[in-house]
Amino acid sequence: MTIKTFRAGPDGSTPQTGIPNASYTTVHGRTDFSYLGVSGFDTGGEWDNTTFTWTPQAGPVEWDFQVWAMDFGGTNANLTATVFKNGVDFQAGIGGAQVNTFVNTGSAQNSGKDVANGADTYQFKIYMTTADGLNNGWLNADPRHIWIIGRSFGT
What is this structure's pTM? Predict the structure, then answer.
């Protein structure tokens, strides 16, 4: 069994802006960042830094995924960290509890397991409603707050 793992996240300086209200948006995690002692990595070459897609080897897989959204909230606030498998909504981690210290922010986490066939693809997306329902939200640039971690175990 060959274990492969990766950690993707923002670069520490460039926030991901333009997260639209009430729509799924792929999180732009990269494995080549280094910020305040936190570094990305990809031991098996399974993460694509251009399409932000994970294509693991065949066998058991597991992931952990967190987003921290800014300009989140308002009435009927929704925030999910959702994993799409082969382009289909596969598993949602529901979040959204606003943090009192940081008004109009929210976070969501998603941890899961699956069995990949070697051609399966996984994308990590955020769905949110913005504070006023009109403006775009954004993800902060800190890889300690926004991260995608995956492990594949092979067969």
Answer: 0.93
